[in-house]
Amino acid sequence: MQPIVSISNLSKTYASGFQALKAIDLDIVSGEIFALLGPNGAGKTTLISIVCGLVTASDGTVTAGGHDIVRDYRAARSLIGLVPQELTTDAFETVWATVNLSRGLFGKRKDHTLVEKLLKQLSLWDKKDQKIVTLSGGMKRRLMIAKALAHEPRILFLDEPTAGVDVELRRDMWDLVRGLRDDGVTVILTTHYIEEAEEMADRIGVINNGELILVEDKNELMRKLGRKALTLHLHEPLDAVPEGLGTYALELSGDGTELTYTYDTQGERTGITALLTDLSAANIRFRDLHTEQSSLEEIFVNLVSDSR
Ligand SMILES: Nc1ncnc2c1ncn2[C@@H]1O[C@H](COP(=O)(O)OP(=O)(O)OP(=O)(O)O)[C@@H](O)[C@H]1O
């Protein structure tokens, strides 16, 4: 299937001489939620600003829906909605006027039914006659989404959609984004919250120092790079890991009542069967056990520190 956004050899050097992006190649699949994950200053905003035509690239090409974003700017841009980090609209405009205006800016004919539907969907309908300056932070965020969707884009970029919002609103945002995906909108979001990428994304791209260091299916990423820990809850506490078990990566905790074994899920052998046999031979009995997979956070921290 043809990608809905195709980024090829994209580089950006700002006038200051700072290179914010280094030869990025990335294809976005239609209908996915793609999370671009990276620390502050990694180049996330620069990347989406280029795709949305707000910043010019120093090198490389981008197409959206098959249209080159420079040569065929209008056609490409009309497919794209952008929710920036900060609201840039006139604060004394009403909600209703500003969303309708956003649609008009793309040369689309008025459609009050669509705007009404959007405002209802975003729980802003009862605020439609209020001036933006009177809205709460969460309402402003939702308004930015309504504005970005007013011209019915097929691709939505969300730049740090939940930075600085409370947990409840974050969950609302996530539900909303999933709903958009269900409606067929392709969503690309930037975030430095690993939890957000873990929760939301179908695929994850990790960007650091202007380089895309990894692009991977989320589940695959967690499976491939994740390690697992098996914790055995012992009947009798141990003072130390018995000598005969010294070859295993074992750690004793919980006042000697928990024995944790860490293993690689992708390894040829996990070593679990041998460990359990040896435990039994050493007469160590357990009453319960559980396993835990390493989180995306641990994977991310390892990746970023490796690429420095
Ligand atoms: N107009 C500019 N001129 C010079 N350097 C810039 C300009 N805009 C951004 N940069 C630099 O480019 C780098 C990438 O910035 P960018 O805003 O793309 O990062 P980001 O990943 O979005 O970060 P954050 O998570 O903090 O929003 C940063 O080092 C930033 O200082």
Automatic annotation (TrEMBL):
Classification via InterPro entries: AAA+_ATPase, ABC_transporter-like_ATP-bd, ABC_transporter-like_CS, ABC_transporter_ATP-binding, P-loop_NTPase
Highest taxon listed in the record's lineage: Bacteria
Family annotation (SMART domains): AAA
Signal peptide bounds: none
UniProt cross-references to Gene3D superfamilies, sorted A to Z: P-loop containing nucleotide triphosphate hydrolases
Keywords: ATP-binding, Nucleotide-binding, Transport
A GO MF term: ATP binding
Pfam families in UniProt: ABC_tran
PROSITE patterns on file: ABC_TRANSPORTER_1 (PS00211), ABC_TRANSPORTER_2 (PS50893)
Coiled coil: none
Occurrences of domain ABC transporter (ranges): 5-234
Family: Belongs to the ABC transporter superfamily.
Name of the protein this chain belongs to: ABC transporter ATP-binding protein
Lineage, top ranks: Bacteria, Pseudomonadati, Pseudomonadota, Alphaproteobacteria, Hyphomicrobiales
